[in-house]
């Protein structure tokens, strides 16, 4: 007599094998993304979901490494979480392998209207701001957080927005000006990336233009940016959405003609 079962039988399923990558300590080096340099870094072939270091297992010379302590994950130039950076020096002869614990990439979008202020942690509700007072002799300042890239911060000196590379660079948590800010100058740094344990928002895009005294329209590198979601600066001074500018498609329209040789800087997320 055969046994009978009530219900739906479970099909046999074989899980996909975890992906594994092998490399040597000699393969590590400096990787620079949007002005930020990651030391002792390696570009992985597979994404790490959510930039969460716990989604991979890293073994160095047969010793399992602790996520977010021994190594961290960062986004590459394509905004993909594929860069692994080690916290301490690694011998060139060391053997390293990385096992990806799950699917390499995914899209997670909550239902419309399901996420509000109550669902966000306090660290995701506002920007972090660092403030310093210059002494005229110092060019480098230590930030309280390490930004994902230079585009994820706004840097002001005495209220005037500074230009990436021209006025400053960022490496890790160090902000370095190309020339020492004047004595008693007030420096303000706003971190704009949404922060969280597992995921954070996309990095900010940076577009810049030069006025010619005639043109009032400028083409952004991306389309579909709401007017209120973009920061627009004219010679370092913030412009007011709708009143001073508007965005339609990929076209930024300023309500006045920026003067010849003036600088227009735009920051936004996509």
If you had to describe this structure to a student in words, what would you say it looks like?
With 270 residues, the protein is mainly beta. It has three domains: 19-100, no CATH class; 120-199, no CATH class; 204-270. The chain is 0% helix and 38% strand. The protein is built from no helices and 22 strands. A hairpin with a 2-residue loop joins strand 11 and strand 12. It is globular. The termini are far apart. Residues 7-15 and 195-201 have low confidence and may be disordered.
Question: How would the blueprint of this fold be written?
Answer:
Elements: E1 19-24, E2 29-33, E3 36-43, E4 56-60, E5 63-64, E6 71-75, E7 81-86, E8 95-100, E9 128-133, E10 140-142, E11 153-157, E12 160-161, E13 168-171, E14 174-177, E15 186-191, E16 205-210, E17 217-219, E18 230-234, E19 237-238, E20 245-248, E21 251-254, E22 263-268
Antiparallel strand pairs: 1-8, 2-3, 3-7, 4-5, 4-8, 6-7, 9-15, 10-14, 11-12, 11-15, 13-14, 16-22, 17-21, 18-19, 18-22, 20-21
Number of helices: 0
Average predicted local confidence, pLDDT = 82
Low-confidence stretches: 7-15, 195-201
Order of helical and strand elements: EEEEEEEEEEEEEEEEEEEEEE
Give the domain tally.
3
The helix content, as a percent range, equals under 10%
The profile of the biggest β sheet is: 4 strands, antiparallel
Which characteristics define this entry?
globular, mainly beta, 270 residues, 22 strands, 4-stranded antiparallel β-sheet, 38% strand
Brief account:
The protein is mainly beta and 270 residues long. The chain has three domains: 19-100, no CATH class; 120-199, no CATH class; 204-270.
